[in-house]
Amino acid sequence: HRERQRFVDKNGRCNVQHGNLGGESSRYLSDLFTTLVDLKWRWNLLIFLLTYTVAWLVMASMWWGIAYLRGDLHRAHDNTYSPCVANVYNFPSAFLFFIETEATIGYGHRYITERCPEGIVLFLFQSLLGSIVDAFLIGCMFIKMSQPKKRAETLMFSHAAVVSQRDGKLCLMFRVGNLRNSHMVSAQIRCKLIKSRQTPEGEFLPLDQCELDVGFGTGADQLFLVSPLTICHEINSKSPFFCLSQRSLRSEQFEIVVILEGIVETTGMTCQARTSYTEDEVLWGHRFLPVMSLEDGFFHVDYSQFHATFEVPTPPFSVKE
């Protein structure tokens, strides 16, 4: 059995790569801040270190250059001479002076004298440039660390979806759960059926997206995700699975993409979790095992049974049949 190529992986990563952008690649530079935030952590750390290292070396070289052009390096130990920066003898001392100024350490051993206008101008330039670099890079790192992507890892989806009867109707169901005690505010779930089809005009659509109704009209798609919930899609005449039977399921090829969105209660940021189910992950005639039990004064959720299913009598025919 060859593994099916997915549009969306089980962990929510979309298997789509953009290529041959041509001149459109410049759009990434026009939004440089978002581009840096979207980079992987190893590239962010590399850019962070390189930017500060290069900026430090360049600014230290400028302070050393001023001292060299004024002749301060040769008369640094002359007590009767007033240099631009006191106690700067070579490049390491110029580098240390820059670090003390940039980090506002202020040891008091090296300082700018009043007879150095070019040093005062360079000091002002260094302060402005340092503030800009700090705001840009530290802001980028803060936004990246506070992204709600990691919150999605504590939102669970069942490994498989099931088809069985509920209230006398054939339904496609899967389970979602929240591992944290903090809630997802305004949680909403959506489902997309991705399947290739051909239009009556002969146009072939390789990844046609069709909405699966999981309670949009009744408000059932608005979740109170305190305990694991079973999401239900009723298979009726309006469902794309109207002609789906247990036998035809073996020959079908489709993918159900599930999107769970909500606001993280602790941070107020919007979070999205995704997963997908291919046709071989849809179990006909199964139902999920219960995971809730009433203990001494509280409800207990047994997540060891979260993915477990059991067989139930289910007609093998489609709703149409």
Distance between the termini: 30 Å
Q: So, CATH architecture of the largest domain? A: Sandwich
Largest sheet: 5 strands, mixed
Which fold name fills CATH's third level, the topology of the largest domain?
A: Immunoglobulin-like
The CATH homologous superfamily of the largest domain corresponds to G protein-activated inward rectifier potassium channel 1
State the shape.
elongated
User: What is the oligomer described by this structure?
Assistant: single chain
Percent helix among the residues? 25-40%
**Total helical elements:** 5
Number of strands: 14
CATH class of the largest domain: Mainly Beta
Secondary-structure-based class equals alpha+beta
What is the alpha-carbon Rg in Å? 31 Å
Uncertain residue ranges: none
Number of domains: 2
